[in-house]
Amino acid sequence: MIWNRAIPHLALAAAFTLGGFAQGPPSYRPADLDQLVSRVALYPDPLLSNVLAAATYPDQIPDAARWADDHHYLTGDSLAAAISADQLPWDESVQALLPFPPVLDLMANDMNWTQSLGDAFLAQQGDVMDAVQRMRRRAYDYGYLRPNPEVQVVNGPYIEILPVNTGLWYVPYYDPLVVFAAPRPGFVIGGAIRFGYSVRLGPAFRPYGWGSNRFAWNSRTVYINNAPWRRTWNNRATYVHPNEPRGVVRPAPRPNEMRPGPAPRPNEVRPGPVPRPNEARPGVARPNEMRPAAPRPPERHQLEPRTPTERDAGRMSRPRVEDHRAPAGRSAPDRRGGRDEDRKK
After folding, report:
1. Contacts of range 164-169, beta carbons closer than 8 Å, 24 or more positions apart
2. Which of 39, 43, 70, 329 has its CA 20 to 30 A from that of 193?
């Protein structure tokens, strides 16, 4: 995970009309984008690509975070089967994060930040990628970001962060106020970025893009499930990403209901707007606002929320801890991380 203290919210530069509803995409300055991406800029490329895409569906994040928390004891094929069996209605980029409860926790615990990150990615995808590179360059130039047994750090025209073992994904912990600034005299930089919490993903998660999610930094393109991510501010109401995994069930809108993302109808006030910092507009909803998630089908699995010890391991990127036993026939990680059968191979 990363530093969990609240980063001050941005004085955002989104343009709004006097009529109340946004008529065009928001506009973020490079400094604003640097601050927005700082929490996740040092995530491995495939994980970061999913976080950015998933942030464009902020209304789905809280429910997905609860599901991931309740099913955290499932891994591998058992987790993939549970995702499919529950007919989850979320976008593939959100479902791809279900094996990572700490990441979804980060997003769900600060929805203003998550929605701003998603808005920026919808409106300025290339600029967001440039901001990631600027922050990585700072961490590298100051000596914090280096290859280690968990990740490769490729320092070329663009800095790539890739897993050493393509089936084992590490979630880093770091303090943005430390790693993106010059080290003070005598500070030991070696432990500033911690790669302790890991998730093992096998072939069962290839339909969700694991193994093909990536950045094409030179063309400022994100690939999700081996297809370019083309969701933008203008097409966010209608975009359906190619190559969605089997089991993604998109619910039809209720009568007179608008899907998440499109501009509101005249004189419509949607429930649950989340105002941006310094924006007090009672009754005015943001175009990409969050709404209460539709109820899921009846739960088919045992629910086991994480314990405080388990949460701390994920939040601080310490080796994974598992305090629950998986039901018979399902696998759960133990305190060393990974599944029993994986370690016996």
Report:
1. 166/211, 167/200, 167/201, 167/202, 168/198, 168/199, 168/200, 168/201, 168/338, 169/44, 169/46, 169/47, 169/100, 169/198, 169/199, 169/200, 169/201, 169/210
2. 70
**13 lies in some domain:** no
**H/E stretch holding 83:** helix 76-85
Tell me if 231 is assigned to some domain. Answer: yes
What pLDDT is stored for residue 12 in this prediction? 43
Q: How many domains does the chain have?
A: 1
H or E stretch including 207? Answer: none
Does residue 1 form part of some domain? no
Give the length of the chain: 345
**How is residue 58 annotated by DSSP?**
G
CA distance 332 to 341: 10
In this predicted model, what pLDDT tens digit does every residue of 111-149 receive, in sequence order?
999 999 999 999 999 999 999 999 999 999 999 999 999
Question: Which value, in Å, is the radius of gyration of the alpha carbons in the chain?
Answer: 20
Q: Tell me the pLDDT tens digit for each residue of 226-245.
A: 999 999 999 999 999 986 55
pTM: 0.72
Express each pLDDT in 96-117 by its tens digit: 999 999 999 999 999 999 999 9
Query: Are the beta carbons of 51 and 43 closer than 8 angstroms?
Result: yes
332, 322 in Cβ contact below 8 A? yes
Q: Place 75 in a pLDDT band, splitting at 50, 70 and 90.
A: confident
Residue 237 domain flag: yes
The DSSP output letter for 321 is: -
Phi and psi for 126 in degrees, rounded to 5? -65, -40
3-state secondary structure of 168: strand
The SS3 assignment for 200 reads: strand
- Tell me phi and psi for residue 223, to 5 degrees: -110, 125
Tokens read off for 280: 């007090």
Q: Which domain holds residue 57?
A: 30-340
Contacts of 60 (CB under 8 A, 6+ apart): 54, 89, 90, 91, 94, 293
